[in-house]
Amino acid sequence: MTVDRSFEAFQDVGSPTHVVLSSANSTTSNELDSVFDFSHLEGKDAGKQLAILNHMMGKAVSIKEGAEAVLNGNAAQLTDALRQQVQSELDTAEGRIEAISHRLEQHRRPVDDRDDFRTILQQARGHVRTLISLSRSVTSPTASQGTSTSPQATSLYDPETTRARIDAMTKLIGLLQRNLRVQYELDVVQVANAIIPALSKRSTQFSRATAYRLVRYMLVDTESVKRLHEQPLDWFVVRSLALDNKHTVEKEQVIKLIRAIVTIGSQNDSNRASCTGTVPLSERVMRAFIAVAEQLDDPFRFVAIQTLTEIMLIDIQCVAKAGGMRVLLQTLSEGPPALASLLNQAFLYIIDSPSTRKYFRPGKDLEIMLSGITDAYGKDSDHQQRLKDICRSIVCMLRTWSGFMYFCMDDMRAIRSLIDTLRIPSLEPREIVLDMFFELLNIKTPAWYNAFISGRRLTVYRKSRQVSEPNADVQQRQPEPLRLTDQYIALLVLVFTRAGLLEALTSMFQETTTGSNLSRKGTLLMAEVLQLANKVLPLSLAAKIQLVSEVFKLASDYKRGEHRIIGTSALSSIDSFNRNRTRLETAVVAAGNRPRANSVEDAIRRGQRQVEQVRIKMGLQMDDKTFQAALLETQVMLTKDHYKWNFETLQDLIEGPLLNPKRMEEAIKLSRFLRRLMNFFHPFSHRFSDIERNKTNMRWVKLGCTLLTTLLASPDGQRFLASEDDLLNQLTRSFAQLDPFNGTPESDPIFSKKRVSDTLTYGYLEMLGTLSKHKEGIELMEKARLFTAFYHLSELRSREDLIKGIIENIDYSIDGHPRIVLSKALTSSYKHIRLYATKHLGEMILHSPTANTWTLRLLLTQLYDPAMEVCQLATQFLEEACESVDILHSWLRCSQPWTTLGIFMSTPVGFRYLFDSGYIDREMDIWFHERNIHYVVEIEVWLAKTMEFIPVDERTIYSKSFDGVVPPHFFGEVAKTELGCQILHEKGHFPEFSLFIRQHGHEKEDPELILKLKSILWTVGNIGSSTGGLPFLEEEDIIPVILEIAEQSQVLSVRGTCFFVLGLISSTPQGAEILSDYGWEAHCPRSGFRRIPAWDPVPSYGEISSEIEVTTAISNLSNTVIAATASRHWPSSLKSRPEYQSVFSSVPVFYRALYMISTSRYRLPVRRYVFDLFDIDLDEDVLRTGASGSRAMPQQPNSRVVSVLFAAPRTHGSESDEEDDPHLDKLRPKSTIVGFTND
């Protein structure tokens, strides 16, 4: 039996059904015996024997698992006889598994012994000799001279030879995969010559694909790629790339070969500028590969574009020379979005350096993406998605220094074009552009924005927050730390307003007097821009923007009533937005900040508190008759249906009269009011716990918390909870339902995931949190053994939601079991629980007005957590918390300060402590030699994530995100104290920093020097951001040098670094004053900062070929055979294309055409046609310019077909009307064949 037949015997054996039926079916039993017959292994090679044994093992394991499933799943339904049969099958399967395992062990040992290097190398060389013998072609002496191929040559491609060649190549590939050392011993040239017949057109597709695959496995280093490049394989690659979609197997392998050549053979010097390496691909292969990337329906187009992008980042000249830049730019403009995003990042990287920037034509190439927006007028709805993708690409570009400064060229022409699209009367495209500006300026859009846009009054959209809440105070605006994101947004606001954004928005208002959603959205954007300008720009610049002169002109235009209506409506909307913004947005009081006493809301808060106090006093003084009437009015005594209860009266009773001990006793003993009410909250009554969880029903949770607080306020209420009511005991039993060691689990426990997420069951956690705020409540929870239930729950991995709810709701202000629960969560065996508990602990520390030693000690424990994410999160919270002097001193008393980096150096106490321990000297040396470089990489990655909205990995979901504040720098922290400045002066590092900046400030080639320059700039900026460190900059007079680099450096990212560094320096009043003397106001740069030095673009092949193709088309008009076709299609079609329009206005090309019609035979209509093609007046100046310019025109492109119809000049006499002219030979385009030179 062959291997294939053996495999067929395995197909339907081994399922559980087969196991059960095998005893009743003798045929099936016989099949089983034949399947596991080891005689099948005889006469097979090692590979096939291993395959058969592995398949046997798989079937035996399937039979074993099926038998076990039958015995375990249907044990009660099986008869004794059938159970014995299934057990017998199980025992047999186990015996077969043991026998097969023994065979596999015996079989693999000699194979492993034989698979040593020498044996595999000998086998590989044997396969190579086989390929060489199969590739030999001996010319038959009897071959007919009239035939194109000899019989011997034909035998190279007969089916038997082809199969033998494929078999040899496949085996050789297998050997190369098994032992990589063999690749270094074989000669790639020998293998390449041996597989040339396999690449022939007469070979099969699979043969060619296998040959390409073999060549790919032969490439091991740069030398092997170089030797392969010397072999005549390029034309085979070109032909394979030109095949249609029926040859996908072959094209896939040849593309993989090209990618291997790029990966292995590319050379890139780290000391040279980026994108200036070498890729060992010939121009002919590059052009064929570019054609694949250009073909829209090719299945490998996306892979080809990605590979071209990689090649461009290594050797941009190779791609530009082959004409690939045009294809990549077209993909950037037309999509798809995934590739456009990739190309966007690549192009931005190229623009940053002057050595690669020259491959772009300023004002033409990258602006191609703007055409999707500027040409959007009149497009259908299908264009909207493409427009959104383009806007996302533009946002990405404008959030990088390269893209921002590129778009600011030519007096911000690109940005002005983008803003001018808001004036186009097409609704949907403009709304997308408005959304783009919202995203660019990082403007968040809360839900109430929709009410503003739809025209509803903000005063009735949402009720004001309950001012009786203790945390509802409005935050006082305090001086904020310098944020890099705010610096960049300030620059964007400044540029957009100067480019006419406010004027464009004003023009939108004038379209209608009644207003529309689009115009109101424009009003909202204008209001936000004014708010941003007031927040991030200096006062002098912000005041100019606040003028909105165009809007005020409309409002004061008394001659045209509609203008006045539009202007006043816009101003009224902006004013309404500003007045209601603070009220509508949820404000959070900063930790430790006292609410303002002079705020507008302060009087309201005092009045509300007075009303609450009066209401409580009236409730406490309520007489018996009124109290009984109030109890009846609640309907609690009359019905169990809570929907019929009077909630307002019930709430007033709990918050007022029941605070009186007398009324509480009466409600418990006489009227049984509280018993009925508490029964509603019992879990097993399924009343409160079954209510749907929504915003309306949230009031019942709040009522339960208030009720528990009222009960704890009196001894009778405490006694009632402890002995008479069963709420806490039922909660304990409900938690016990989740304990796997507490007997049989319930099918629908009270605290199931579904009930906690969909019902008010989650409210029990808030009610327990209310109890934990009081000492008496904690005692009641201890008596009910609720904390024991919490300890058990902390070990459940499947109830992460419940553990997080307990951690979040329990109050930790009283020492005892609550803190133990938190400590147990911080040391949980599950990392995600420890992360959440650490995050909650850190937020508790930040929001606590005083320093608590116990919280700091717990956070100290997290620094030693085995998970790096937990340690990093704890370190971040410590660094932020230690900004408070009280917390810093508490931390110094309870820990060793070197557990975190530099969080103590900002205060004299902490710095002295670290200096005495020797920490400062060690850390300063580390930062001077290496950590400065790491700081640059870290901050640039953070900025990229913040400004480009890189998706956050799920593993970092609990980590504190970069909020734009400058990360702490060691030298910056040192400069904050007097002792630190003294040490920095003694070390002498700052003069070295200044010297390096002066020497390499304008470096534009060496990437390592540029990176080090950035690191030193950041160091100098952090030192200058403090009052003590600024004198270092003044002594070295380094600020003018940084300003010069910011305006004249040809590396755009270095300019951006200088921008941020100057912002750091301006963070102190003294630094801002110094920069102001140089014309740099705060962090708003001078106009020279945005000006990129002009560059001459590298002449692309397209520009040269356009002139050649035009002259070729005109020359074809002299051929009487194709003149008619040429006149209809060639010149006219070229002239209609934008890239050729400049050619028909070129005087040298016009002079060339004149010379051609003067030296060749052209009919009169053709001559008239040629003159009409050019938009040039023939005069003396044109002739003089043309005579000199025609000599500089390229005569022949490199390896490119110009015209196969224009014959070469004859060296003998001609009977035609043409005259032999030596000058004509130089001017006439030559005919060449691609890939061959004239040698």
UniProtKB/TrEMBL annotation:
<dbReference type="Pfam" id="PF14668">
    <property type="entry name" value="RICTOR_V"/>
</dbReference>
<feature type="compositionally biased region" description="Polar residues">
    <location>
        <begin position="139"/>
        <end position="155"/>
    </location>
</feature>
<dbReference type="Pfam" id="PF14666">
    <property type="entry name" value="RICTOR_M"/>
</dbReference>
<feature type="domain" description="Rapamycin-insensitive companion of mTOR middle">
    <location>
        <begin position="622"/>
        <end position="847"/>
    </location>
</feature>
<feature type="domain" description="Rapamycin-insensitive companion of mTOR N-terminal">
    <location>
        <begin position="166"/>
        <end position="538"/>
    </location>
</feature>
<feature type="region of interest" description="Disordered">
    <location>
        <begin position="1211"/>
        <end position="1239"/>
    </location>
</feature>
<dbReference type="InterPro" id="IPR028267">
    <property type="entry name" value="Pianissimo_N"/>
</dbReference>
<dbReference type="InterPro" id="IPR029451">
    <property type="entry name" value="RICTOR_M"/>
</dbReference>
<dbReference type="InterPro" id="IPR029452">
    <property type="entry name" value="RICTOR_V"/>
</dbReference>
<dbReference type="InterPro" id="IPR029453">
    <property type="entry name" value="Rictor_IV"/>
</dbReference>
<dbReference type="InterPro" id="IPR028268">
    <property type="entry name" value="Pianissimo_fam"/>
</dbReference>
<dbReference type="GO" id="GO:0031932">
    <property type="term" value="C:TORC2 complex"/>
</dbReference>
<dbReference type="InterPro" id="IPR016024">
    <property type="entry name" value="ARM-type_fold"/>
</dbReference>
<feature type="domain" description="Rapamycin-insensitive companion of mTOR">
    <location>
        <begin position="1010"/>
        <end position="1082"/>
    </location>
</feature>
<dbReference type="Pfam" id="PF14663">
    <property type="entry name" value="RasGEF_N_2"/>
</dbReference>
<feature type="region of interest" description="Disordered">
    <location>
        <begin position="139"/>
        <end position="158"/>
    </location>
</feature>
<dbReference type="GO" id="GO:0038203">
    <property type="term" value="P:TORC2 signaling"/>
</dbReference>
<comment type="similarity">
    <text>Belongs to the RICTOR family.</text>
</comment>
<dbReference type="Pfam" id="PF14664">
    <property type="entry name" value="RICTOR_N"/>
</dbReference>
<protein>
    <submittedName>
        <fullName>Rapamycin-insensitive companion of mTOR, N-term-domain-containing protein</fullName>
    </submittedName>
</protein>
